[in-house]
Amino acid sequence: MWTLINSPETYPFSVALVLMLLIGLLELVSLFTSGFTQSLDGLLPESLLESSPPEVRLPLDEMGAGLRLLDWLYVGKVPLMMLLVIALAVYGAMGWVLQNLFYSVSGSLLNVYLAMVLVAMLSLPMIRLFAAAWYKIMPKDETTAIGADALIGRVGVVVLGIASANQSAQVRVKDQFGQQHYIMAVADGGSDLPQGTVVLLVSRQGHLYHIIENVNANLVD
């Protein structure tokens, strides 16, 4: 066992497992801070997002090879952060299993580069299997991925902090499906927007949204 732990041939798989744990912790933190997980999903092409309108989503036969692979792996259906955790866990675990089996049979470890390529290919079906299982059990009304720009034009309310031009605050906003999101936003005008202010999302820069006070009573969430 020490040979496996202390060998460069197993380092990539150990790193994958460590990254999986770190990202899991980051995902836990994002539950309280919001923004990061959502901003990752916002980087995806809208043609992959399950929540995109039918006219935006591409039929499978019109997708390129890369988009087909991503769609096959449930990218856009399962939150990207969770899919990354699954991929790292599968890759790291399968790498250790492969090297352990090879060592048991031959008394030596497989070349690290060859092992990385083999494990990458062998991992894809398992990643898809676990992603499909997660997709079936996850609460769709809470975890459906949407494009980050889809929230622009929606009405929200400042729930934590005071939004100013230089300071962000947490805003609660509903998407078109009635799903609530907690995003970080800064004031787009000169006035500060304290907690409880009803606001309108007008633009986005990175993971930060720009908001103004909603003075139109006809605009509701």
Automatic annotation (TrEMBL):
Domain Inner membrane protein YqiJ OB-fold: 151-212
GO biological process, one term: proteolysis
Residues annotated as transmembrane: 12-32, 78-98, 110-131
Superkingdom per UniProt: Bacteria
Keyword Transmembrane helix: yes
Pfam family, one: YqiJ_OB
Keyword Membrane: yes
Molecular-function GO terms, alphabetical: peptidase activity
Coiled-coil parts of chain: none
Keywords tagged on the record: Hydrolase, Membrane, Protease, Transmembrane, Transmembrane helix
Name of the featured protein: Membrane protein implicated in regulation of membrane protease activity
Biological classification of the source: Bacteria, Pseudomonadati, Pseudomonadota, Betaproteobacteria, Neisseriales
